[in-house]
Amino acid sequence: MTSDAVLLLAPRINDTGLQLRTAAGRRGLRAHTATAWRAPAELLGASVHVYGGPLFGDAVGGAFGLGLLQPPDDWPALLPRELTGRPLSLTTLAEARRLRRPMFLKPPGDKLFPAKVYPDGSGLPGPDALDDDTPVLASEVVRFLREYRLFVLDGEVRTASRYAVDGDLDVAPLDEDRYRAEVTAFAADVLAASAGTLPSAVVIDVGPLDGGRWAVVEANAAWASGGYACTPDSVLDVVRRAGGPAAGLPAADRPYCRELPEVVH
Asked: Considering only CA atoms, which of 20, 201, 91 is closest in space to residue 6?
């Protein structure tokens, strides 16, 4: 039994997890990499902060009383068009299957099916695989020239990184990107428009569309997002808030806590 704060990492640790483990060590924060997809018994009673995918969060969240913050499914669709750059809507899988034109379709939270451009809705999972009421974010097809990841805490971008150019992985710290000022200015507009509609710790992706207009790509849970070339210490700050004990969350964050399943072993 322990009462020390612990950063708990998923068994299949990725590059960001390794960076966070090192950053935690610099701060004297204990890090523990799980060996199985369940809550490590030796950590029960600890103040745990988690970094891993949704499956890992679901597996351990209830045992540790975590408040796993995530953006609302409909957040991008509620933004004004000047910030999305294209029509966006939150629909259901049943409705999306009836589409008969190309659309970019993605599950807004968990990776239940591939996020990509579908020629029509016939290529989506059938009712035998996923329920008809499964949420789907539908977007007109656009092309992003570049894409940037922003780790946000309390309405402020704490660290950012470029991660794609013309749809291909191309990682660089924001400080080394010639469009840094444009990223910063657009991020400020997005955060101003999003006041009261996002959790206090979140990841937002943005970038310029073909033609130069800036737009929101999507938002994601910080505790399940890759850091790319973001500063690990700043990523850790955001992850600790987004994936920490529910009891420590401000009241305004509670509506954004992921609904955790009951885990039976």
From this structure: 20
**What distances in angstroms separate CA 151 from CA 44, 53, 182, 240, one per listed residue?**
29, 16, 16, 12
Contact 92, 134 (CB under 8 A): yes
Nearest 5°: CA angle at 50, between 46 and 53?
150
pTM of the complete model: 0.94
What secondary structure, in 3-state letters, does 76-127 show? Answer: HHHCCHHHHCCCEEEEEHHHHCCCCCCEEEECCCCCCCCCEEECCHHHCCCC
Backbone phi, psi, residue 239, to 5°: -65, -40
Average pLDDT of the chain, as a whole number: 94
How many CA atoms within 13 Å lie on the side-chain side of 101? 4
Distance CA 194, CA 83 (A): 11
pLDDT of residue 265: 62
Residue 184 is encoded by which pair of tokens?
Answer: 């910063």
- Spans in the chain with pLDDT lower than 70: 1-3, 264-265
The amino acid occupying position 58 is: D
Q: How many CB atoms lie within 10 A of CB 165?
A: 15
CB atoms within 10 A of CB 195: 8
Would you tell me how many other CB atoms lie within 10 Å of the CB of residue 250? Answer: 10
- Name which of 2, 1, 7 is nearest 241 in CA terms: 7
Distance of CA 6 to the CA centre of its chain: 21
